[in-house]
Design brief:
The complex is a heterodimer of chains A (251) and B (274). Helix content of chain A is 38%, strand content 24%. Chain A has 251 residues and is of the alpha/beta class. The longest helix of chain B has 32 residues. The chains are: A alpha/beta (251), B mainly alpha (274).
């Protein structure tokens, strides 16, 4: 029996009056996989993630997560998903513990106090639990956001540039935690990023977007081989500068 | 965590409502300036109108009979105004905190958010107006609670109107961003002259009176004057107000859902801000 994909995105289009943000994007994510959505600013990564979560209604196309049609029944599956994004903040006046408690209740987490203690330990937040979130450093706030995104042990995790604005050391630490979570939980992770180091380290598949479309979609090593490059950054630049088409046609 | 994707979703979860009430309570508790502000404006308003009425009482026989009609109007008006502000500010806190995306992508349903906002509107009203009603007794001997069951009828109708306006304004802010925030602060003042808080409907020009009678608070303020001036409880007015409130509450809820869906179509939930 074939394994059902965790996420299916089918001919997704999002058109605004000002232009088309996402233009016929299709992909499926295997359960337990970690996939990168790679692209420059305005490529359509954030809009795609927002449509997967149901925050934005597609102009056309469909999204299903864990077999549930997100346009009609998103509330059947939202408790098994979570996300982290630099476009949203945690309430700054609430302490870390209060924030985790509120979101734990929203996600229906059982034995919440124990869960908060465990997630705080995982993200080294135990000593910060009773401090207001707004008083934390940027790196600490990112760890709180990630702790919130894992509070419900999600089966599907969507991350929008999770290490943006972090210094290399903290970013590396965060990547380690995400890698461990995916491995331990068997979760499906979609990671929007334009950080090539992050993508090379974490993801077994890379979807490259440009101007709302998928320009390429493959494993990192196959992309490197096909473009004749040694780093994903060089591949990304080839795609961004339009050199990908020539190489793609030689496939 | 519990459950699978194929289970029947819980359409309404008191636990999620409690989570949101807890979130707003934490916020309120963390900020003394927010707490002080809840009491400050109603107290200032009540004292100003109270002293004015005290002065008029000494100079006219009519107002001597109409003891408390101004202070009563001020306090009832504040239930209406602060009820709506209490609802809208709790919602705006999510916009100011850039937290709406977290909520909209969580299992929280719009109806649960609205119920939490209604509960917080009551909590803020209790914190803000409770002490002020005691001040009114201390300073002017005006006991709002002496209205008894009539006060309950007034309160229910005013709070329902405040929630209907709060729900509609929240929808506008969802759809149009914080640029529409000004409606939250000003929309109730559009009702002030028409709802006839401080004077009878008969004072209005004849052509404007039907407009006034379309507003539920008009019935409450007329009912309050009937109670204080004629010692008569007008149940007919309260029922008419309740009917109109049911209509406006339904319209506001429908508008909120339409504006939320429009925001999701336009992608404006991704660009929360001005």
């Amino acid at each position: 029996m074939p394994i059902m994909p965790a996420v299916v995105v089918d001919r997704l289009v999002k058109a605004y009056k000002t232009g088309i943000a996402v233009d016929g994007v299709s992909f499926a994510l295997a359960p337990g996989s970690m996939t990168a959505l790679l692209g420059g600013n305005g490529a359509g990564k954030t809009t795609t993630i927002a449509m997967i979560m149901g925050l934005v209604i597609p102009t056309s196309g469909a999204v299903s997560v864990l077999g549930v049609d997100m346009a009609r029944h998103r509330h059947r599956v939202l408790h098994r998903m979570n996300f982290e994004s630099p476009y949203v903040d945690m309430p700054m006046r609430l302490t870390v513990r209060q924030n985790l408690k509120v979101f734990g209740l929203l996600y229906g987490v059982e034995d919440l106090e124990a869960r908060i203690a465990a997630i705080a330990a995982r993200f080294e937040l135990t000593d910060l639990l009773d401090r207001p979130t707004g008083k934390l450093s940027a790196g600490q706030k990112t760890r709180v956001s990630l702790a919130k995104s894992l509070i419900n042990d999600p089966d599907v995790l969507l991350l929008d540039e999770p290490t943006a604005s972090l210094d290399p050391d903290v970013a590396d630490w965060v990547r380690g935690r995400l890698e461990a979570y995916r491995r331990d939980r068997g979760a499906t992770v979609l990671l929007a990023s334009h950080n090539m180091t992050e993508v090379e380290r974490l993801c077994e598949r890379v979807i490259i977007m440009k101007r709302g479309r998928i320009e390429d979609d493959d494993a990192p090593e196959r992309l490197l081989a096909r473009y004749g490059r040694t780093t994903l950054e060089e591949v990304f630049l080839d795609v961004a500068r339009g050199r990908g088409e020539a190489r793609g046609s030689a496939r | 965590m519990s459950g699978g994707a194929d289970r029947a979703p819980i359409a309404f979860s008191p636990r999620r409502v409690a989570a949101m009430v807890l979130r707003y309570w934490y916020l309120l508790r963390s900020s003394w300036s927010r707490l002080v502000e809840l009491v400050y404006w109603p107290a200032v308003q009540m004292l100003m109108w109270g002293f004015l009425q005290h002065y008029i009482n000494q100079n006219t026989t009519f107002f001597a009979r109409a003891g408390g009609v101004f202070i009563g109007a001020v306090l009832l008006w504040d239930i209406l105004f602060r009820g709506q502000i209490g609802f809208s500010v709790s919602f705006l806190e999510e916009m100011w905190a850039r937290n709406l995306g977290n909520l909209m992508m969580s299992p929280l349903r719009p109806v649960e958010l609205v119920v939490a906002l209604m509960i917080m509107s009551l909590v803020r009203l209790a914190i803000g107006l409770g002490p002020v009603t005691l001040l009114a007794i201390a300073f002017f001997g005006f006991n709002l609670y002496a209205m008894g069951l009539a006060l309950a009828a007034f309160f229910v109708n005013l709070v329902l109107t405040s929630w209907a306006v709060g729900i509609f304004v929240s929808g506008l802010v969802l759809r149009n961003g914080l640029g529409a925030e000004t409606f939250a602060w000003s929309i109730m003042f559009l009702l002030l002259p028409l709802a006839c808080a401080y004077y009878p409907v008969a004072v209005l020009p004849e052509w404007l009176q039907p407009v006034s009678w379309m507003l539920p608070p008009t019935y409450v303020f007329e009912g309050m004057r009937a109670l204080l001036l004629e010692q008569t409880f007008r149940g007919d007015l309260m029922l008419a107000a309740l009917g109109l409130n049911a209509l406006y509450f339904g319209l506001a809820a429908t508008a909120f859902i339409a504006l939320l869906n429009s925001a999701r179509r336009q992608g404006s939930l991704l660009q929360i801000g001005e």
